[in-house]
Amino acid sequence: MLEELAKIPWAVIAPLILVQIILMIVALIDLRKIHETNGPKILWVFIILFVNLLGPIAYFIVGRKQS
């Protein structure tokens, strides 16, 4: 198992993981501050947390209600 972990190209994967974490944090903070969304807030929490990189992006494109 350690040999398999050593074969993973961490130089490529680590920045993607970092971007994903930053987007999730920013989206969750924004979701907490905003009063109205397109759909229930709890649904957006689950989408942001469990749909990897596309969840936070979908929230910023579709989930925020434009006034």
Automatic annotation (TrEMBL):
Main subcellular localisation: membrane
Highest taxon listed in the record's lineage: Bacteria
Membrane topology per record: Multi-pass membrane protein
Cardiolipin synthase N-terminal domain boundaries: 22-64
Protein name: Membrane protein
Claim: Membrane is one of the keywords in the record: yes
Cellular localisation: Cell membrane
The species this protein was found in: Lysinibacillus parviboronicapiens
Pfam families the UniProt entry points to: PLDc_N
Entry annotated with the keyword Cell membrane: yes
Keywords: Cell membrane, Membrane, Transmembrane, Transmembrane helix
InterPro entries to which the protein is assigned, alphabetical: CLS_N
Membrane-spanning parts: 12-31, 43-62
